[in-house]
Write a structure and sequence with these properties.
- The chain is an alpha+beta fold and 132 residues long.
- It has one domain (3-130): Dynein light chain 2a, cytoplasmic (Beta-Lactamase), CATH 3.30.450.30.
- The chain is 36% helix and 23% strand.
- The chain has four helices and five strands.
- The protein has helices at 3-14, 45-62, 66-69, 118-130, and strands spanning 18-24, 30-35, 75-78, 82-88, 94-100.
- The chain has a five-stranded antiparallel beta sheet, with helices on both faces.
- A hairpin with a 3-residue loop joins strand 3 and strand 4.
- Helix 1 packs antiparallel against helix 4.
- The relative contact order is 0.19.
């Protein structure tokens, strides 16, 4: 099994909130992707591809300060309905994940600031990175 396919399968298995996952090359082309069965797209696919390109460009821009702040680990953009997470991978590719962001009225929390379980997500990414 290709390592990116395994990465996306593990992410989908670990948390039912994960709606969509993709691994993209530096040009924004989607190499592998997956979407949770039964989940309807909130954002049209073409708009998602544009969002991926913007995220990749942002990582390129942020690399200019790497010597000052260290290597970027992840970025989360939170909207009322979803969170979008981007994670740079060692090979120049980018992992892009969309997860549910339940409104406070449907959860026990009082705000949209629920955790994205980044520790678990990064552990899965690190496990896949360790496989050569």
């Amino acid at each position: 099994m290709e390592k990116y396919e395994q990465l996306l399968n593990m992410l989908m298995d670990f948390n039912e909130s994960v709606r969509f996952g993709a691994v993209c090359n530096p040009q924004g082309e989607i190499l592998w992707h997956t979407q949770r069965e039964g989940v309807k797209n909130i954002v049209p696919y073409e708009d998602t591809k544009q969002t991926i390109l913007r995220a990749i460009d942002a990582w390129r821009g942020n690399s200019k300060i790497k010597d000052h702040v260290g290597k970027g680990l992840y970025s989360i953009t939170s909207y009322e309905k979803i969170k979008r997470i981007s994670i740079p991978l060692d090979d120049g590719n980018t992992l892009f994940i969309s997860i549910n962001n339940e409104p406070p009225s449907k959860t026990k929390t009082k705000s949209y600031g629920q955790l994205a379980e980044m520790g678990k997500i990064l552990s899965i990414v690190d496990f896949i990175k360790s496989k050569k």
